[in-house]
Amino acid sequence: MEQVLARGVNFLYTKQFIIEKYGNKEWEQALQLLSAEAQKIWKEPVLPVHEHPFDLYKELISSLTGASNIKQFIELSSIYEYIADHSLNKLYKVFFSFAKPQFVTLKIYNANGQLLSLLKDGIQTSGAHSAVWDGMDESGTRVSAGVYIAS
């Protein structure tokens, strides 16, 4: 049987949701109820591109009902809604600078190399600049969570 994995972004935003909604004390109490393997994953810095066994994700959700000040069962739908709101509705900012004016073409690609968005295409002055990507492709469709390349 193939192991089901959860993306790191799920871990990041679930932790943020619990701390914002219930506080750091309850977060720490929930962690104490986890296996050593799960505690290690939840305590170490997790990158959105990391993947971990889904069972370790479910273990934390189950442990929340055992934390002292969390009286009610946390509905998974509210956690998933929080994850979606925070991971898919962000603006991504790309920073760059030049010593002298030059022509710049800045594009966003998906991991397969497909062009999603053209952010800059023209002469830029010397100095610091930035460009914002709204997570949409050229047709105005929001892209799914994943790894994207600015080039």
Task: Tell me what you see in this structure.
By secondary structure, the protein is of the alpha+beta class. The chain has 2 domains: 5-88; 92-150, Immunoglobulin-like (Sandwich), CATH 2.60.40.4070. It contains 5 helices and 7 strands, in the order E-H-H-H-E-H-H-E-E-E-E-E. The protein has helices at 8-22, 24-32, 36-43, 54-63, 76-88, and strands at 5-7, 51-53, 92-98, 102-110, 115-124, 127-133, 148-150. The strands form 3 sheets. Strands 5-4-7 form a 3-stranded antiparallel beta sheet, with no helix packed on it. Strands 1-2 form a two-stranded antiparallel ribbon. A two-stranded antiparallel sheet has the order 3-6. Helix 1 (8-22) crosses helix 2 and helix 1 crosses helix 5. It starts with a strand and ends with a strand. The relative contact order is 0.15. The model has no long low-confidence stretch (mean pLDDT 76).
Summarize the structure.
The chain contains 5 helices and 7 strands, in the order E-H-H-H-E-H-H-E-E-E-E-E. The chain is of the alpha+beta class and 151 residues long. The chain folds into 2 domains: 84 residues; 59 residues, Immunoglobulin-like.
